[in-house]
Amino acid sequence: MADVKSRLTQDEVEQLQHLLGSRSLSLLYKASVHGYNASIFHAKCDAQGPTVAVAYNGSGYIFGGFTNQCYVSSGGYIKDEKAFLFRLKSKEGVLSPLKIPVKTATSAIYDHSSNGPNFGGGALQLLDQNAAAAATSSNDNYTYNVADLHGNDLGLTECEVYRVEDISSFLESPWRKITWTTEEREKIMDEIRSYKPYLNSVQQIRILVLGPVGAGKSSFFNSVNSVFRGYVTSQAIAGSDNASMTTQYRTYPVKDGSNGKPLPIILCDTMGIEEKSGTGLEIEEVSNIIKGHVPDRYQFNPAATLRPDSPGYVKTPSLKDQIHCVAFVIDGCKIEILPEKLEDKLKQLRRKVNQFGIPQLVLLTKVDEICSTLEDVKCVYNSKAVEKQMRITAEKLGIPLAQIVPVKNYCSELDLSCDVDILLLSAMRQLIRLAESYLDNFPFERPKEEL
User: Fold this and answer.
1) How far apart are CA 236 and CA 217, in angstroms?
2) What value does the CA radius of gyration of the chain take, rounded to a whole number of Å?
3) What are the distances in angstroms from CA 333 to CA 365, 370, 390, 392?
4) What's the rounded Cα separation, in Å, for the pair 409 and 424?
5) How far apart are CA 131 and CA 136, in angstroms?
6) For 311, how many CA atoms within 13 A lie in the half-sphere containing its CB?
7) What is the DSSP string of 393-437?
8) Strand stretches in 292-359, DSSP E
9) CB environment 337-368: b (16+ within 10 A), e (fewer)
């Protein structure tokens, strides 16, 4: 029996997963192998958790039903508000999905040892009379046109039952709306290219990127840079180590294309934040950076912060040299297990940044690792696991959920992906908008020709 295989094709599996909001199906029962028998069905499928029954007929229809509850041969009805009937394929095997939700949840499933899968007390019954047959009737429990479900062909060529795992991992609808098209990607890129700070004295906004060691600060710059270069590149030193890979303060302009002009953005990279005192980026050093006193390529020294008499200290920085927005980069997989001292240090940094009135955005990285079933980043706002981590981040750092966005950096990929680009570009657009709101605090400067 170990070689029992699913009859569903890959396209059919993907369509069924879409209807279920799930990514994992495990075959429990196959009538052509185990027998068209209700007792065998219950022996294989009772106490297995949520299941989906899939039936096939000679007319090419694939149809069935899903229950979020366990079969236990109770001899009565089971309440299930998430149960539904479905059709994957219609006449001659044409893919045409249809979903029929339960109408009377208290009678969603009839769970009797003498019956096969029985939805709504006869609305759809498979293994009818312990035979390769189905029985259907539209009743108050499920309302539908029976011909739409199976084309009035009640003879079965196969019946399979699958355990449905991680059924609650995905929301039916995304809780934030994003358009996942190449046109949207180009639209956001054009918005960023054409952006001009309204203050004449500031030609490029400066975004300070802060975060714990290994969270993906430098990788974020490399990823954004890659999007505008048109290929995956790695200018900033990135990687994983116990200590920060970044030891210098670097200001990275983002260029549009290999030989293109600089965009109106400068991403400022720093040492990673570490748990122990005297290691990693110190809070007082952040004050110097925000004020514009720290020069490009300044070598950090956790034992001694930059002082007015230090070599390279910028004594009279202008607004264009200062920080206009801060991005906190947080590893989404580790937010729940942040060491207490590191969490306290991040909160102190938040308070320090708040003292300067600088707006902040949290970039929650590694979203593809947060949810093991997130194979497509387009589902990032459908993932309950990602939403949970974002809410935990909001609570731990004391930042509004609206100021947290998920991103995926380019790490192992050799080629760009439109969906990954859109997440990165959406984050950059939000950073620009926050920086613009900070510049609104300063008096408007009329162009020189008007003076």
Assistant:
1) 10
2) 29
3) 8, 5, 11, 11
4) 8
5) 14
6) 4
7) HHHHHT--GGGEEE----SS-SS--HHHHHHHHHHHHHHHHHHHH
8) 298-299, 325-331
9) ebeeebeebbeebbebbeeeebbbbbbbbbbb
Q: Torsion-angle region of residue 239: left (phi > 0), alpha (psi -120 to 50) or beta?
A: left
Please, which residues have CB within 8 angstroms of residue 82's CB and are 6 or more apart in sequence?
66, 67, 68, 102
Cα-flanking dihedrals φ and ψ of residue 254, to 5°? -100, 125
The H or E element spanning position 338 is none
Phi-psi sector, 289: left (phi>0), alpha (psi -120 to 50), beta: alpha
Cα 19–Cα 15–Cα 25 angle in degrees, nearest 5: 75
Neighbours of 303 (CB within 10 A): 8
Contacts of 312 (CB under 8 A, 6+ apart): 295, 298, 306
Cβ within 8 Å of residue 449, ≥6 positions away: none
Residues 163-218: tens digit of each pLDDT? 988 655 677 789 999 999 999 999 999 999 999 998 889 999 999 999 998 899 98
- The CA distance from 268 to 221, in Å, is 9
* Residue the block writes with tokens 């007929």: 57
Across the strands, what pairs with 65? 53, 85
Q: Which residue, among 359, 405, 397, 424, has the nearest Cα to 212 in the 3D structure?
A: 397
Instruction: Return the beta strands (E) in 37-94 as ranges.
Output: 51-57, 62-67, 76-78, 84-89
**What are 278-333's pLDDT values in tens digits?**
778 888 889 999 999 999 999 888 777 888 888 889 999 999 999 999 999 999 98
